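Structure tokens please, single chain.
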Amino acid sequence: MSQKRTKSKKNKRKNLLINILAGFLILLSLALIFNSKIRDVIMIWNTNKYQVSQVSKEEIEENKTATGNFDFDSVKSLSSEAVLSAQWSSQQLPVIGGISIPELEMNLPIFKGLDNVNLFYGAGTMKADQVMGQGNYSLASHRIFTGKDADQKLFSPLARATNGMFIYLTDKEKVYKYEIVEVNKVTPDRIDVIEDRDGVDELTLVTCEDANATERIIVKANLKEVKNYLEASPEILQSFNKPYKQFYE
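Here you go.
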């Protein structure tokens, strides 16, 4: 009887372990299937949270004094795991403005620096001393290649940018209007595209052309007009208030 009981207990333990393992594999499979959706929900929620319409002018001025990371080599590719991992630590990212391209339905916060978390939710400044409306104001963000409506997230819409489109920046003191004059593809070593040029006030937007980051999309725009924030048209101000598009109804 003792041997039968021992064998029965061993079988129960074996079956329990098999069931636990099977359950874990099912959960892992579901996570792999839905991780891009979870990633997108987190990104959308945080982008809306940090939009310039949610931040006061005083907070923006304070954030301009924050210490940013401007080490290009520290920027990691966007992954679901990285986005999920970033949620475990409390954070208050340094919003210093907003960027809107109405024709591409794009509205994102601008953060100081190229910290990876900044680039998960918006655009990051590429140089420590740059000032809106002066010199070559340069911004970078990720392009998304997987998931529903991937071409509408972060800087993905830049793949559809064309000459003549207007781009608006604001720090809630001024609104800066730029007109796109160039859309090019370059290799990652072309750092010269973000350097200042004498007498030229321009905007440079940078994102990946392909999933392996072998090329960059470079959008160049020239400064056309500067207005006080409260004097900008209702349509332009509304473009900064438009919530990041919700992809899951």
